[in-house]
Amino acid sequence: MPLVSTLSSHNYTCHLAPLASTGQPGSATSPSMKDDVAAIRSVVQKVVEQDGGTEVLMVLHSAGGFLGSMAIEGLSVNERKAAGGQRGGVRRLVFVAGAVWEEGFRHGPLPFFEYRVSPGLPFSSFYLVFSQSLSLHHFPRRGRKS
Questions:
Q1: Residue 143 lies in a domain
Q2: CB 44 within 8 A of CB 71
Q3: Could you tell me if 75 and 54 are in contact, meaning their C-beta atoms sit under 8 angstroms apart?
Q4: Residue 90 located in a structural domain
Q5: Could you tell me which residue, 122 or 10, shows the higher pLDDT?
Q6: CB half-sphere exposure, 41, CA atoms < 13 A
């Protein structure tokens, strides 16, 4: 993990939360997003409660943005302080190519994703469709290579 190696070389303690649903489509246990949230929460809660209260900066990549945001409910520095003066908690979130939405948000079809139902399989697939008209339209023409 290049990011973990870099941060560790600067004396930051790093913890990873393995996601149960990653790379396991069709597994017998069918782990879900809820399992991922629980795994992240378990790691963060242990770190937050270390040494009488540790402050945490979370780096969240891709889907980790909304999974991590869900997992830390009640674990922020302010929430822990308000709930009986507990020390420690999540101080900051860093999103790397990630996103977070309001609770209950549902989105419809997006112009930059293809979504395919996989008949006979226990999962569906979606993938990013790169289109110059969708991704570069807001940049000035000068400096573009095409």
A1: no
A2: yes
A3: no
A4: yes
A5: 10
A6: 15
Distances (CA, A) of 114 to 100, 120, 121, 123, 136: 21, 19, 17, 15, 19
C-alpha distances in Å from residue 126, one per residue of 49, 113, 114, 123, 142: 38, 7, 5, 10, 33
Q: How many structural domains does the chain have?
A: 1
pLDDT per residue as tens digits for the range 31-83: 788 889 999 999 999 999 988 889 999 998 888 888 899 999 999 999 999 99
User: Does 119 fall in a domain?
Assistant: no
Residue 73 and residue 62 in contact, taking contact as beta carbons nearer than 8 Å: no
Query: How far is it, in rounded angstroms, from Cα 33 to Cα 94?
Result: 20
Q: Which two tokens stand for residue 99?
A: 């996103």
Owning domain of residue 100: 2-106
Phi, psi of 93 (to 5 degrees): -120, 135
Tokens of 8: 């560790």
Q: Is there a domain that residue 111 lies in?
A: no
